[in-house]
């Protein structure tokens, strides 16, 4: 059962990271005709995309490397951690699971980027 929970958490984290990377790509590319809906998930995706960019992910489209700013990445992860703490009990199950998956993924990526 624990392995199944870990697998599910990994899948949610990967999906969250892909959503965050997609958000980062959208913000750097052409703007959509409609602005994104202001929602909790959008806030989390935006912060996650910022943290990923500060960890050097995704790489520059021209094959170049992004500068890493791990101190800033850690700060954004800490902000998301505070957000989780301060919203505890006030989120829907989907929002809570999404935030936890994003935090898990960012923490794993941060450790890898730091090493």
Tell me what the structure shows:
With 115 residues, the chain is an all-alpha fold. The protein has one domain. The protein has helices at residues 2-28, 40-54, 70-87, 93-114. α1 (2-28) packs across α2 and α3 (70-87) runs antiparallel to α4 (93-114). The protein is globular, with a radius of gyration of 14 Å. It starts with a helix and ends with a helix.
SSE blueprint:
Elements lengths: L1 H27 L11 H15 L15 H18 L5 H22 L1
Features:
4 helices; mainly alpha; 0% strand; single chain; 115 residues
Question: What does this entry show, briefly?
Answer:
This protein is an all-alpha fold and 115 residues long. It contains four helices and no strands.
If helices are DSSP runs of H or I spanning 4 or more residues, what is the number of helices? 4
Which series of helices and strands comes N to C? HHHH
Q: Assembly type of the shown chains?
A: single chain
How far do the termini sit from each other? 31 Å
* Strand element count: 0
Low-pLDDT runs of 5+ residues are none
User: How many domains make up the coordinates?
Assistant: 1
Main sheet overview? none
């Amino acid at each position: 059962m624990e392995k199944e929970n870990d697998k599910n958490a990994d899948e949610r984290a990967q999906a969250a990271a892909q959503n965050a990377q997609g958000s980062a790509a959208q913000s750097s590319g052409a703007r959509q005709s409609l602005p994104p809906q202001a929602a909790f998930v959008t806030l989390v995706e935006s912060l996650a995309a910022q943290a990923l960019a500060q960890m050097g992910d995704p790489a520059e489209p021209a094959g170049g490397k992004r500068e890493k700013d791990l101190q800033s990445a850690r700060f954004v992860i800490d902000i998301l951690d505070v957000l989780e703490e301060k919203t505890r009990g006030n989120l829907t199950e989907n929002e809570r699971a999404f935030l936890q998956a994003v935090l898990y993924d960012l923490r794993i990526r941060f450790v890898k980027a730091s090493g």
